[in-house]
Amino acid sequence: MEQILDVIGSYVADAFETAGYDAKLGKVTISNRPDLCEYQCNGAMAGAKQYHKAPLEIAENVANVLDGCDAFESVDAVRPGFLNLKLSAEFLAGYLAEMAADERLGVPEADTPKKIIIDYGGANVAKPLHVGHLRSAVIGESVKRILHFLGNETIGDVHLGDWGLQMGLIITELRLRKPDLPYFDESYEGEYPEEAPFTISELEEIYPAASAKSKEDEEYKKAALEATNQLQQGRRGYHALWEHILNVSVADLKKNYDSLNVFFELWKKESDAQPYIPPLVEYLKKEGYAHLDQGALVVDVAEESDTKKIPPCMILKSDGASLYNTTDLATIVMRMENWKPDDIIYVVDKRQDLYFTQVFRCARKTKLVNEDTGLYFLGFGTMNGKDGKPFKTRQGGVMRLENLIADINEEMYTKIMENHETDPEEARETARIVALSAIKYGDLSNQASKDYIFDVDKFTSFEGNTGPYLLYTMVRIKSILRRYMEETGRSAEEIAALKLLPAAGESEKALALALTGFAPAVLLAGAELAPHKICGYIYELANQFNRFYHETKIMSEEKEAQRDSYIALLSLTLRVMECGISLLGFTAPEKM
């Protein structure tokens, strides 16, 4: 299905050609003066010099050709040479009918679909998710959904941190607390217990305790480093403990990610990339890409066009130890070998910009990826509290993500119970759904690269540019549709077949015009990896619906055909909003 701007543009382009001008001058855009017209064409301004004519004369010539075209209610040539266009209500109704008949609501799939890996996890095992993990998860999930909806094969990878010093710290602390466990007996040859010797709560207490000790006790830190080394060298008991840590942590992480409607196709870990490191290092040496610099193995990635210094990408430290750079490059090798993606997108804190510049340049220079493989860094800003500083608990600590979610759930539950008499259990479930919209929309409605203030009062409000406002609008539409079905006995399938009449009033036409913007919004969000484009679109659509709702007697309309048309328009509006919020990663309840 063609986008409405393309359809209108083809009419205007043909008119330019018929009038004796270049058809390329007929580009149409949404009007920047909606008080004057709905669409505009500035081609006459560009053609004035080419044809040695006043732009107004060219615009009038084209307007004369378009006079009587069924697509337009009016075409006006205005000084100094603009074409102001208003669509006819009949044409608009026909376009919406075609959109309603399309399962994809007019959004085209990619002509050449890609296989895209999105790296948007980055959690560490043995540590709870905190608010700092929110943006990567929420933005990454939405980007994945948008790209998938556009016809691409998308693969989300959690990329867990499981292979660093934190493993050695936990093992060292466990050894102190439970020295009799068989994992520490090197002579033990039996089977290790299937059940972990700790719970997730114990594990989350062990790590910070061990970390604090290592900063104060040098011998303790040495022991942790040695334990890390022995784990990585394959010590049997430590490897079994590592598996326990991993299993307990992943089960808890999945529960937390599930509560955010965030899902990964791959649960790959840093440790999965370790087997790729030795051959990677050997390859970089053999091909002459890497060289020693003060004992460290590095790859130069600076380019002549750089306006700031880009340091070399370090592969091995002077003591031969690998780094995050090494693991990320090895992960790229693993991904290219096993999945052969066309693009890899990293959804990471924007402060990692320089780091990923080094890694991407190194991967390209050393031919770890194909020439046409896309490597993208989608850097996000900081989530701050009302004080403008990184979001903290009231005690000043880093807030656990599950606690933030619980707090928002409670806030929504209180508001729902205050406003309505409802079953508490049903209210809890509704609160959970609405709270998720508050959290996700509060984040996604901001441009990803910008810092933003996480304002609980604002984000949980049922008014203004918030998730709950969108859901309240959708629930209002659902309520009208239910009432219509009860009164007429018609099914959802019969509603879908209702005929859309030309808009009878200004607010109805404004809503119809807003609906035509869905596909362009999704396409733009996909092209720019920008979920906030969809947020902005849905918010405007909700505003247009509410204006129409307040100005129109929908269910009390006496003319049956007109009432049916209103219902068809509402049904399409709901479908568009449901699709839109699904791309953002949340849903709407039936009632609120």
What attributes characterize this protein structure?
four-stranded parallel sheet; four-stranded antiparallel sheet; 592 residues; Rossmann fold; alpha/beta; Gyrase A, domain 2; globular; 53% helix
Plain-language structure description:
- With 592 residues, this protein is α/β, with parallel strands linked by helices.
- The protein folds into 4 domains: 4-87, Arginyl tRNA synthetase N-terminal domain (Gyrase A, domain 2, 2-Layer Sandwich), CATH 3.30.1360; 117-161 and 269-384, 3-Layer(aba) Sandwich (Rossmann fold); 165-253, no CATH class; 401-584, Isoleucyl-tRNA Synthetase, Domain 1.
- The protein has 22 helices and 13 strands.
- The strands form 4 sheets. A 4-stranded antiparallel beta sheet has the order 1-2-4-3. The protein has a 4-stranded parallel beta sheet with strand order 6-5-10-11, sandwiched between helices.
- Helix 20 (518-528) runs antiparallel to helix 21 (531-551).
- The longest helix is centred in the C-terminal third of the chain and has 25 residues, at 560-584.
Quick gist of this model?
This protein has 592 residues and is an alpha/beta fold.
| Global geometry | globular
Name the CATH class of the largest domain: Mainly Alpha
Helix content: 40-55%
Rounded to an integer in angstroms, the radius of gyration calculated over CA atoms is 29 Å
Number of strands: 13
Oligomer designation? single chain
**Helical stretch tally:** 22
Q: Major β-sheet, in short?
A: 4 strands, antiparallel
How much of the sequence lies in strands comes to 5-15%
Overall pLDDT score:
95
